[in-house]
Design goal:
The chain is α/β, with parallel strands linked by helices. It has 2 domains: 213 residues, Isopropylmalate Dehydrogenase, CATH 3.40.718; 134 residues, Isopropylmalate Dehydrogenase. 41% of the residues lie in helices and 17% in strands. The protein contains 14 helices and 12 strands. The strands form 2 sheets. It has a 10-stranded mixed beta sheet, with helices on both faces. The structure holds 3-isopropylmalic acid and magnesium ion. Magnesium ion (MG) binds next to helix 9. Its EC number is 1.1.1.41. Pfam families: Iso_dh. This is Isocitrate dehydrogenase (NAD(+)). Keywords: Oxidoreductase.
Amino acid sequence: MKAAGDWIDYSSLKPLVIGYVDGDGIGPYITGEAIRVLQSLLRDELERGDVEFRKIEGLSIEERARAMKALPDDALDALKKCHVILKGPLTTPKKGDPWPNLESANVAMRRELDLFANVRPVSIPSEGIDWVFFRENTEGEYVLGSKGFNVTDDLAVDFKVITTQGSERIIRLAFDYARRNNINRVSVVTKANVVKTTDGKFLEIARAISKEYPEITFDDWFVDIMAAKLVDTKRRRDFRVIVLPNLYGDILTDEAAEFQGGVGTAGSANIGKRYAMFEAIHGSAPRMVQEGRAQYADPSSIMRASTMLLRHVGMIDKARKLEMALDICGQFEKKLVMTGRPGGATGREFADYVIETMNSDDLESRWLSYTGKGI
Ligand code: IPM
Ligand code: MG
């Protein structure tokens, strides 16, 4: 971590290799639709050979169970040969499931590819909410999450790990993001009043780093009251950039996404200096598959993740187009409504609606008529 190199420059890569993982459960349905949207958006780049889509095999829960590995070696090698990755949700086995109790593939991938920053935006323009969560992505309760043990029949122990380097890099990224985007507030969330050593370190480092950004207001919150404040309609729009350790970030971002229209609408970027992976914030929803409803799963989440991927590699105009189309289709015009059930639109129908909107000549003027904003 101390010797980490510089950030990768995507503009010099030809072709830019976009790997994609279908995922488990509803994964293949929603990922397939996101890839279809991206293929339409990047048609010229694909034809010119500037961009290549590459399917990554070997990561389904069946294949991981067969290999008895959270991240089978061949799949990890294939992931490392891509520049950026779009990943459908992968089933995480838990105690009592029919699968071996393997570590989460997500967690393993974040660690193996050193994707230390989990960036999760939540925006509700009509309420003035524009939050960006910077969740630390490789430490906390997660790093040794499969290494806990039962000391006796009655005593179970897990671990929480926080390092100076791990905290510094996520906190700095959050402040740099705020500075670059003229955002005047960064809030750090911990439970440093109780979890004194690890959360105490995170808070202390945040406080020290905040001094280097005098133009940005810095405040700190405990995770319990922050969970409450996110519901407080009088206060919540004041929050802008929120930086927090891994598990608190996991929990609060699901809560935040719910206000935006559900976890099915939220994307998530997992960013490191060398690799980056983009995904929906939700899981594989096996219940939807069991009940025969997978085709009704909302692909907006992974399409939002796709906009983050495009921004990350510098294709800002393409990202804007898809963002505007998703705003129009999902938040404003809503000609089709996803309910997750028969009666609502299917993911395929929604993707067709997004593609048609995205490619329409009046995309921008339509978007502006709804938001009344400049770009
Ligand atoms: C997420 C998920 C994962 C996490 C699970 C699947 C391990 O909830 O990406 O938020 O806890 O990080
Ligand atoms: Mg989560």
